[in-house]
Design brief:
Elements lengths: L1 E6 L4 E8 L3 E9 L1 H5 L6 H23 L8 E7 L3 H18 L3 E5 H18 L11 E6 L4 E9 L9 E9 L5 H11 L6 H8 L25 H11 L3 H13 L7 H5 L4 H29 L3 E5 L6 H14 L2 E3 L3 H4 L4 H12 L34
Parallel strand pairs: 1-4, 4-5, 6-9, 9-10
Antiparallel strand pairs: 1-2, 2-3, 6-7, 7-8
Helix pairs in contact: 2-3, 4-13, 5-6, 5-7, 10-11
Bound molecules: 5'-O-[(R)-(carboxyoxy)(hydroxy)phosphoryl]adenosine and zinc ion.
5'-O-[(R)-(carboxyoxy)(hydroxy)phosphoryl]adenosine binds next to α5 and α6.
């Protein structure tokens, strides 16, 4: 079953062809970073217009790279939310019209569900390629950490009609951010320090030259649930260390330096950063990574699962990946983190999630529409009622 996936929830226009939810035949991602970089963040109106321009060529390219004609598609999967409505609508309407014209089934996919399926998809591909990896085990606690989301889910599966029949996945949300997403915090700190956009990858690179222990931001305390997140306080703590100091003057100078140099290399950018700036971002990154790892491990322990999955754009972060690997090893969890291209927004993950939906008989009808907010697993939001004592291991 070859599914065409379409993703346009934010600033990437993406299309992919995936066979049986297990093999990527093609995956095309047209990034809008150059369009939004000069504004230091995504401008929704510009994003929708660019999706309109790109959607057709991106879908055609996905077919071409897969060596397929559009009529050979067995189904279409589109992101229905959450995201920017104007952006979502472009992919959704295109996918809906295509499915209708081809008389093929259509699946609406929650973007977060897509990120979760990136883990399963890569695991299946690795096994098919004989890489000797074990099958991904469910239930698993999954951290979806990106520019728009920071949420913990317990992901389970059911075989309603026996083991050989299609799987139905279930998602229980254990916690989520109460303010900024982790990726948003990276992007805002980078903007404050005039380092460029998107901030996550830039901070990841520059932080290697900084001392992660130089600034002690302390632990992030959550009043109420331990499995929720909050990054706006940390972002404000960075702001207070910059505002009215030499670091702010330095950031202003960097802004002027960067203006004609949007493509400056990391080495060139680093030369424009004082050691104090490098130490500050390394310490910030350290605080974010520590918090994400600790809460995810606490969730896995509370949910009594053996597997931890980490996915979403921030899962590309090298420190975060190393910390998760270290903590999972020492505490006996099996960790799965997709390769960076599958962590950031892509349409292969949407096609993979859509494949399972179509197999399970969950095709969408003509009423499918875009939703700016579309909760996943909300009804069973238990979070195990764990209170944050401020003393996580
Ligand atoms: O999953 P994604 O492509 O889009 C959303 O669904 O939001 O994630 C984009 C986010 C951005 O905030 C970006 O700064 C962050 O992921 N990101 C990173 C890294 N690579 C991307 N954050 C930290 N370290 C990275 N290496
Ligand atoms: Zn995403």
């Amino acid at each position: 079953m070859r599914i065409l996936g379409i993703e346009s929830s934010c600033d990437e226009t993406a299309a992919a062809m995936v066979a049986d939810g297990a093999q990527i035949l093609s995956s095309v991602v047209a990034s809008q970073i150059p369009t939004h970089a000069k504004y230091g963040g995504v401008v929704p109106e510009l994003a929708s217009r660019e999706h309109l321009r790109k959607i057709e060529p991106v879908v055609s390219e996905a077919c071409r790279r897969a060596g397929m004609g559009i009529k050979e598609v067995d189904g279409v999967a589109v992101t229905e939310g959450p995201g920017l409505v104007g952006s979502l609508l472009v992919g959704l309407v295109y996918g809906k019209a295509l499915a209708r014209a081809l008389a093929k089934p259509l699946a609406g996919v929650n973007h977060l569900e897509g990120h979760i399926h990136a883990v399963l998809l890569e695991n299946k591909m690795d096994r098919l390629a004989g890489k000797g990896v074990d099958e991904a085990q469910l239930p698993a606690v999954t951290l979806v950490v990106s520019g728009g989301h920071t949420s913990l889910f317990r992901v389970g599966e059911k075989h309603p009609a026996g083991n050989s029949q299609p799987v139905v996945f279930n998602y229980e949300r254990l916690g989520q951010t109460r303010d900024d997403a982790a990726g948003e915090a990276f992007d805002k700190v980078a903007r404050l320090l005039e380092l460029g956009y998107p901030g996550g990858p830039i901070i990841d690179q520059l932080a290697r030259w900084g001392d992660a222990e130089a600034v002690d931001f302390g632990r992030i305390k959550m009043r109420g649930k331990l499995l929720d997140f909050s990054f706006s306080g940390l972002k404000t703590a960075v702001l207070y260390r910059v505002r009215g100091t030499a670091l702010a003057v330095e950031a202003e100078e960097r802004r002027a330096w960067r203006r004609p140099r949007h493509n400056a290399s990391t080495a060139e950018l680093r030369a424009q950063c004082s050691q104090a700036t490098l130490d500050l971002i390394a310490s910030f990154q350290n605080a974010v990574a520590r918090d994400l790892v600790e809460r995810t491990l606490a969730a896995a322990e509370a949910a009594q699962v053996d597997s931890i999955w980490v996915t979403g754009g921030v899962a590309c972060n090298s420190l975060l990946r190393a910390r998760f690997a270290e903590a999972s090893r020492s505490r006996g969890f099996r960790l799965l983190v997709p390769s960076p291209a599958l962590c950031t927004d892509n349409a292969a993950m949407i096609a993979a999630a859509g494949y399972h939906k179509l197999r399970a008989g969950q095709a969408a009808d003509a009423t499918l529409t875009a939703h700016a907010s579309l909760p996943l697993g909300e009804k069973q939001d238990s979070g195990f009622g764990i209170q944050d004592s401020g003393k996580m291991a």
